[in-house]
Write a structure and sequence with these properties.
Cofactor: Mg(2+)
Number of domains: 2
CATH superfamily of the largest domain: Spore Coat Polysaccharide Biosynthesis Protein SpsA, Chain A
Catalytic activity: alpha-D-glucosamine 1-phosphate + acetyl-CoA = N-acetyl-alpha-D-glucosamine 1-phosphate + CoA + H(+); N-acetyl-alpha-D-glucosamine 1-phosphate + UTP + H(+) = UDP-N-acetyl-alpha-D-glucosamine + diphosphate
Largest sheet: 23 strands, parallel
Distance between the termini: 99 Å
InterPro entries: Bifunctional_GlmU (IPR005882), GlmU-like (IPR050065), GlmU_C_LbH (IPR038009), GMPPB_C (IPR056729), MobA-like_NTP_Trfase (IPR025877), Nucleotide-diphossugar_trans (IPR029044), Trimer_LpxA-like_sf (IPR011004)
Subcellular location: Cytoplasm
Radius of gyration: 31 Å
Enzyme class: transferase
CATH architecture of the largest domain: Alpha-Beta Complex
Structural class: alpha/beta
Length: about 450
């Protein structure tokens, strides 16, 4: 059997009026990703010859937000309906290819159901995805005669009897390009909204004697369209529920499944425990026996087994080895790497630094652009002064160094193995021999000194 070429159209030129936003609807976020990106990713997975993106105004904004992505960009300057949008792309079609039509505001359509759609497309006719809704308000109704599809009526144009129909059109369809171009040329805007409805090609095709084959979407989430913020919030909760169900069934313990948000991809080992109000962004990997306590945000990170992340810790583009403890209220910024048995305490910020085996930063410190060896202890209030106002500089601390509280390390600087730095010291040059380093003003005691008092006005 010869594999027929296929191209995909994504309709994304709507005005997004009901979102009440300056941001185009398709760029609002669902589970941490723009709505339109879900559709583009699915389209790319379909091995299509071409992917057309029909956009409205703000084309430069579109391309800036998502990049070119190998798409064919087609501008619809006037929003005259979905039929008009497809007409604009039709000049690029090759007669021997099939055209799949998707929507930029229907983000969770899947490759699986699109492959089913391809299989049911009849010769010379249309393949259409429909679904059954208990409350079909807002959707076009599928009109059948003796179980054969004869057309689709938009709700605004439907009769009272047609409004009772619960089978609705998702808008997602497939047709041969040559046929599609012929049907598009017959569209008119003889309707209440004075738009060129793409759905009218179904009646046109039927009148030619062609078959309209349909498949039901088994999961209404696949065809759920977003028109306003309420619908976006509703789909977010549905999507999150499905995400946490997968985690629970894979053996992850979620202490309250309704209070975890997965805004990316989460891969977990065995016996992982996640507490409430945790947010996962990007690609996150958790090893065996990892425990994530309440209020943490994890973004694009790898966390090794037996590690505990204490409450309200933020970990961003970092990698943690095994048996670490981090938090509470810690922040690991991009480029941070912790070796096994590292311990980061409360109110510690680390950026673009390596912390060695069994090293500790207990609390209230900033470590940036540093390479820290094994068994190093860094006291409270320690700062690597890595920025001179123009450039970032490196701090190197070798193994077995003890740094007392309230120490400033003025980078670039290197501290040799086994050094002890007394509390309150400012280190301004390399330490090349181990020993005790102290730089303090002499303590002065002024007797009989009186504290200033307020003057009477």
């Amino acid at each position: 059997m010869i594999k027929q070429k296929k191209s995909i159209i994504i309709l994304a030129a709507g005005n997004s009026i009901r979102m009440c936003s300056n941001l185009p609807k398709v760029f609002h976020f669902l589970a941490g990703k723009p709505i339109i990106q879900y559709v583009i990713d699915t389209a790319k997975s379909m091995d299509a010859s071409k992917i057309y993106l029909i956009y409205g105004q703000n084309g430069d904004f579109f391309k800036k937000k998502i990049g070119e992505q190998g798409l064919i960009w087609v501008l619809q300057t006037k929003q005259l309906g979905t039929g008009h949008a497809v007409q604009l792309a039709a000049e690029y079609f090759q007669d021997d290819e099939n055209i799949i039509i998707l929507y930029g505001d229907v983000p969770l359509i899947t490759k699986k159901i699109l492959n089913r759609l391809i299989k049911i497309k009849p010769y010379g006719g249309i393949g259409l995805i429909t679904t059954i809704l208990d409350n079909p308000k807002g959707y076009g109704r599928v009109i059948r005669n003796n179980n054969n599809v004869v057309g689709v009526t938009e709700e605004i144009d439907a009769t009272e009897e047609e409004c009772k129909i619960k089978e609705v059109n998702t808008g997602i369809m497939i047709a041969n390009a040559k046929d599609l171009k012929r049907w598009l040329n017959q569209l008119n805007n003889d309707n209440i909204q004075k738009e060129y409805y793409l759905t009218k090609i179904i009646a046109i095709s039927h009148e030619e004697g062609n078959k309209i084959n349909t498949i039901y979407s088994n999961d209404s989430i696949e065809s759920y369209g977003i028109n306003n913020r309420l619908e976006l919030a509703t789909l977010e909760r549905i999507y999150q529920k499905k995400q946490v169900e997968k985690l629970l069934l894979s053996g992850v313990t979620l202490l309250d499944p309704s209070r975890v948000d997965i805004r990316g991809t989460l891969v977990c080992g065995i016996d992982v425990v996640i507490d409430t109000n945790v947010i996962i962004e990007g690609n996150v990997v958790l090893g065996n026996n990892v425990k994530i306590e309440s209020g943490c945000i994890l973004k694009n990170c790898i966390i090794g087994e037996n590690t505990i992340i204490k409450p309200y810790t933020i970990i961003d583009n970092s990698e943690l080895s095994t048996d670490c403890i981090v938090g509470p209220f810690s922040r690991l910024r991009p480029g941070t790497k912790l070796e096994s048995k590292s311990h980061i305490g409360n109110f510690v910020e680390i950026k673009k630094s390596l912390l060695g085996l069994s090293s500790k930063i207990g609390h209230l410190s900033y470590i940036g652009d540093a390479k820290i060896g094994d068994n190093v202890n860094i006291g409270a209030g320690t700062i690597t002064c890595n920025y001179d106002g123009a450039n970032k500089h490196k701090t190197i601390i070798e193994d077995d160094v003890f740094i007392g509280s309230d120490t400033q390390l003025i980078a670039p600087i290197s501290i040799i193995k086994g050094t002890t730095i007394g509390a309150g010291t400012t280190v301004t040059s390399d330490i090349k021999e181990s020993g005790l380093i102290i730089s303090r003003m002499k303590q002065i005691h002024i007797k009989n000194w009186k504290r200033p008092t307020k003057k009477n006005k």
